[in-house]
Write a structure and sequence with these properties.
By secondary structure, the protein is mainly beta. Helices cover 7% and strands 19% of the residues. It has a two-stranded antiparallel ribbon with strand order 1-4. A two-stranded antiparallel sheet has the order 2-3. The structure holds iron/sulfur cluster (SF4) (2 copies). This is Ferredoxin.
Amino acid sequence: MPYKIVASQCTNCTACEALCPNQAISEKGNTFVIDPDLCTECVGHFDDPQCVAICPIDNTCVIDSTLPRYAA
Ligand code: SF4
Ligand code: SF4
């Protein structure tokens, strides 16, 4: 579930969208968003969350602490 994009920091560079193994990232309005129902924290696909790894802006793809951690 739990990564989210901080909209106020996202520059709409699009880099994260294609890397998500679950197609959880999409453009919405003036920013990119992560569908919490699709994000699995990249568990089983990659060692690190790919959106965090590629995002050029620090602290923009972050854990959404309001949601429970993904459990495979
Ligand atoms: S952590 Fe992985 S599964 Fe979740 S949105 Fe980022 S790239 Fe997609
Ligand atoms: S990689 Fe970061 S800055 Fe680029 S679209 Fe995704 S969240 Fe926004």
